[in-house]
Every structure is written in structure tokens, then in C-alpha cells.
TrEMBL record:
UniProt cross-references to PROSITE patterns, sorted A to Z: ENOYL_COA_HYDRATASE (PS00166)
InterPro entries per record: ClpP/crotonase-like_dom_sf, Enoyl-CoA_hyd/isom_CS, Enoyl-CoA_hydra/iso, Enoyl-CoA_hydra_C
UniProt-listed Pfam families: ECH_1 (PF00378)
Protein name: Enoyl-CoA hydratase/isomerase family protein
Length: 281
């Protein structure tokens, strides 16, 4: 599969966009504790501009302080999930001193990868193309669903760039080191269907079904016991544990959950053959 990244022509801003729709990030808080973050600059394929990055930073800070949060879904509008860093802004800083460039990029990476620090599961609904840092953002989420016809990849080498935003680690975590080498060294773009076959995403679906699948999964998570979910995510975030390390962690985390009202509610609901009503207590 020698698929090369397409050379996309710049697009003009969408003249039909109303002033109230021009913010690049839309935030929707649903009653069940699921928050949906939507990139809303479809005419330019949802790039990570300075404005969007600032909004993202504030959103991550706010969500970390939201006790009723149960899950987060991230998606885009139009033909793209996210086209990655704004190349115009990046090119404008050409020739910047190396220490300054390193610090600025490090701040950019850490701002976007703060999604990994959220205490609840995150679900990427990759509705369309996810390229470069846009792919890294999807890979940083706990779960990923993609449009079968979407294009995913990290074509940094075709721009004269080394990969950024921990793509070397995140891609290897998703597809294994050998496939990661193939994709990063060629800069190849692959379809959502191929990405699912490689394990880069959990499932590939028709574009119109991607967000619904992500929301259904988030709703399932939101219906579970919040502390149990958060501790499970924390345990999984520790990486590949040995059996002894897992026993140590689980002995503590499961003991904590047995003291909660939610555990007692879960047992009662099982005995009464009904859905549990978890409160987080």
C-alpha cells in the first residue's frame, strides 16, 4: 500500500458561518455526565490554531475540575476530524532560536496531550481525516471509532519534519513498533478501515454512524460506577504490569470500591435484576 499524502489546496473560510458559530471548539455537557468536544472549523479541516489550542487548554482545566464528569467524546465537523498543527503558524516561526522553538512546541504538545490526564475515559469519534498531530490526538484517547473512508496518518517526513506530539510512542502503542516504523518512515496515509484492521482504531464505520457509536460507548461508561471506572482507567494507564504489580494495584483499588455505596447498589441491582443507579458515592 503505497498511499501518499494528498496535496490539498487551501480552502476559503465558509461564508455561511454565523458569528456565533465561529469559535473553533464547541462544548456540550450532557445530563448523564458525558461531555462532547467538537472542532468546528470544517472549511479549514479543523487545524490546531493558536485560538483552538487556547480553548482546548481551558477546556481541559475545566473538565478536570468537574466532579460529575463521566466520559468525554471528541469529534470534528465536515470532512476532517483534525488536520493537525496549523502549518501557516508553524512556518511563520521559521528561524526561531532552537531553545525557544523547543519550549513552544513542548507547551503545544503538553496542552493537547492533557486529554490523557483526564480522570475519565475519552472517546475519539474520528469522523474524517486525522493527520499528523490530529492523529496523535485521536491516539491519545482511550477509545477510537473512525469513518471507514477517513484518511489517517502521520506524514511528517513529507513536510521535512520529525514527528511530534508523542506520535512515535502513541502510534507504537496502538499498532506495535514494526507497523509504527512503516507508517512513520513512509508518511503513508491509510483508510479508517485499514486503521481498524491494524488496531489503530477500535472500529471503522460509515461516516454517519461514527459519532453515534462513540456516544453509545460513552453512555455505557457513564452508566457504570464512576469511582470504579476512574480507578480502572488509572490502573490501565500504568502500562503493562506484571502479575505481581497488578495484584498489588488491584488489591488496593478493589478494596476501595467495596466500601462505596455504589458497590452495594450494584449488588442489590444484580439481585433484583434491574439496572443499577450509581451516584458516585
Amino acid at each position: 500500500m503505497n498511499e501518499q499524502p494528498p496535496l490539498d489546496e487551501p480552502t476559503a473560510p465558509d461564508a455561511r458561518t454565523t458569528p456565533g458559530d465561529r469559535e473553533p471548539l464547541r462544548i456540550e455537557h450532557r445530563p448523564n455526565g458525558v461531555t462532547v468536544l467538537t472542532f468546528s472549523r470544517p472549511a479549514t479541516r479543523n487545524p490546531m490554531t493558536a485560538r483552538l489550542t487556547a480553548q482546548w487548554r481551558q477546556a481541559m482545566r475545566s473538565l478536570r475540575r468537574t466532579p460529575e464528569l463521566r466520559a468525554v467524546v471528541i469529534t470534528g465537523t465536515g470532512p476532517a476530524f483534525c488536520s493537525g498543527a496549523d502549518l501557516g503558524e508553524l512556518a511563520d516561526r521559521h528561524g526561531q532560536d532552537l531553545p525557544d522553538a523547543r519550549d513552544r512546541l513542548s507547551d503545544f504538545y503538553r496542552t493537547w496531550l492533557a486529554v490523557r490526564d483526564l480522570p475519565v475515559p475519552t472517546v475519539a469519534a474520528v469522523n474524517g481525516h486525522a493527520v499528523g498531530a490530529g492523529l496523535a490526538l485521536a491516539l491519545a484517547c482511550d477509545l477510537r471509532y473512525a469513518a471507514a473512508e477517513a484518511r489517517l496518518g502521520a506524514p511528517f517526513v513529507h513536510l521535512g519534519l520529525h514527528p511530534g506530539m508523542a506520535t512515535t510512542a502513541l502510534l507504537a502503542e496502538a499498532v506495535g513498533p514494526a507497523r509504527a516504523r512503516e507508517l512513520l518512515l513512509t508518511g503513508r496515509l491509510i483508510s479508517g478501515a485499514r486503521a481498524a484492521a491494524l488496531g489503530m482504531v477500535h472500529e471503522a464505520l460509515p461516516a454517519g454512524q461514527v459519532l453515534r457509536a462513540a456516544l453509545d460507548t460513552a453512555d455505557e461508561i457513564a452508566a457504570a460506577a464512576p469511582l470504579a471506572v476512574r480507578l480502572t482507567k488509572s490502573g490501565l494507564a500504568q502500562g503493562q504490569l506484571t502479575v505481581e504489580q497488578a495484584l498489588t494495584w488491584e488489591g488496593l483499588a478493589q478494596a476501595v470500591t467495596t466500601t462505596t455505596d455504589d458497590f452495594r447498589e450494584g449488588v442489590r441491582a444484580r439481585r433484583e435484576r434491574r439496572r443499577p443507579r450509581f451516584t458516585g458515592a
